[in-house]
Amino acid sequence: MSTHNHDTPNPYHDSHRDEAQNKALAERVDKIEALLLEKGLVAQDALDKLADIYENDLGPMNGAKVVARAWVDDEYKKRLLEDATSAIAELGFSGLQGEHMVAVENTPEVHNVVVCTLCSCYPWPVLGLPPSWYKSFAYRSKVVIEPREVLKEFGTTLPDDVEVRVWDSSAEIRYLVIPERPEGTENLSETELADIVNRDSMIGVTKVAAP
Amino acid sequence: MNNIHDMGGFIQFGPIPQETDEPVFHSDWERKVFAMNIASLAFLGPVDRARHAVERMNTKEYINSSYYERWLRGIEIMGKDLGYLTDEEIATGKVIQHKEMPHPPPNAEMVEGLIRGGAPATREDGRLEPVFSVGDIVLVRNLESKGHTRATNYVKGKVGVIIKFNGSHLLPDTHAHDLGDNAQPLYTVRFEAKTLWGDNVDRKDCVYIDLWEDYLEAAE
User: Fold this and answer.
1) Could you tell me if the ipTM is greater than 0.85?
2) Model pTM score
3) Domains in chain B, start-ordered, CATH in brackets?
4) Taking a contact as any Cβ pair under 8 Å apart, which residues of chain B between 134 and 173 contact chain A?
């Protein structure tokens, strides 16, 4: 598995465990799972369905469709900025951890970036489950105090006169960033536009690049 | 509760670990923990209790655990709190005491219904009329909490401006502890970087955070 920053060992890296640790964790998890199943707290078909939905149905491809629609349809963008939950539901996306959506628009003057400092709240219906970096202590702790330094780690450098707004998801409101539409994409279709919108740009740590 | 989970404003956790082509789950045990956590909410929830269980972890253990390891610990903590699991059962994986369940566990169809339908935090009863208006200057009260709260330490005692009223949302501080919904106005509040981090800060940055009415008082 390739990683950036691999030359700087990070004791707080949030995803990697060696083989022995994974084996021990797998055994511990299997014990808990067996207990919950036998005691009737969970059902096997429900566990399978959950993994299936979050691995296959929900992900940033959903949010990308929302952004692409907002880029090509001004009326839709207006509805999205006024009532994101309803506007996102128009495209068929809603549900757990997306019950109360707010969309924030990046412009040449304002750059928005989203975090949850207390845990790792994230808009699951439109972006799926969060990447490791979003859940890392490094990101959760630093982006509120040094957002520009954090953005630089993602290759995003902003002029001093751009206002950086960090959204800390402390309640059940979930935030989706509408990135700026890149120049040179005037002739792309809505589908082609959705293809260039990636996850990180909808969290707000990167900008969308023209293809 | 004061613990390491409330980490907004620390700067020495090192570089942010970025992974290319990251899978949704890195191993099968992560997949299982995620699924168990959501599927068991019918008995172990609400989500506020689940968040608080993780916050109660020993600080050093929290720091040295990955995300889904913390979720696993949360299941163990809630299972024990609510009388569904014992230490011996967790250690052995063998059922020792059976507890009568009030209803069967949610099946695949019910879980899918939860995922698609969600569990809204807004309420139509409780305190519905907001005390504050957009543009009001507010101070985040400096309240000690031994339990669950979503007021971060970095905004406590700080002054911000109300930018939005979001309706009445149930209060995690009581909901996490079976003390009722206590629904009340939820506001989005803007804080300038200078206010949060120091008078000498001149960065043109700000933080927007969602705060419940009980967290706030009027300020000039």
Assistant:
1) yes
2) 0.96
3) 28-117 (1.10.472.20), 137-218 (2.30.30.50)
4) 150-152, 154, 166, 169, 172
